[in-house]
Structure formats: structure tokens, C-alpha cells
Amino acid sequence: MAKNNDIGESLKKLEAIATWFEKESEVDVEEGLKKVREGATLIKELKGRLAEVTNEFEEIKKELIKDTE
Question: For every residue of the chain, which 3-state class applies, written as one string?
Fold first, then answer.
């Protein structure tokens, strides 16, 4: 996931996938598999991006603590 890719946008895509499964009375296996793969990729990318964001917050916190000492 590119850094400029919006976390919120990826979450909306995941929500759309979940909604698709909820609305389908009979899920096409091939289409369902495609959606599951897409969702798994989004989750993996989001986990990585969230780890990056967490690290960025930690760096900012360290800088603030250092500046106030």
C-alpha cells in the first residue's frame, strides 16, 4: 500500500466486500474467492500501514519528550 493511500478508503473497500457477502443469497464461488483474496490483501496492507503510523506516532512522542527535557 502506498503511503499516500488513505486508510479510510481501504476500510471502505473492506466494508464493501463484507456487505457484498451479506447481501448475496447465493454466493458465486469464484467471485467469492476473488473477494476473499482482495480482502486478505487489503488487511495485510492495512496492518503494515497501521504499524507504520504507530511507529510515526512513537517517533513524534520521543521527539516531544526530548524537546521538553
Answer: CCCCCCHHHHHHHHHHHHHHHHHCCCCCHHHHHHHHHHHHHHHHHHHHHHHHHHHHHHHHHHHHHHHHC
Positions of the chain with pLDDT lower than 70, given as ranges:
1-5
Report the alpha-carbon distance of residue 51 to residue 20 in Å, rounded.
Answer: 28
pTM across the whole model: 0.76
Distance between CA 15 and CA 39 in Å, rounded?
9
Residue 59 has phi, psi (to 5 degrees) of: -65, -45
Q: Report the candidate in 48, 62, 68, 40 with the shortest Cα–Cα distance to residue 5.
A: 48
* Site of grid cell 471502505: 12
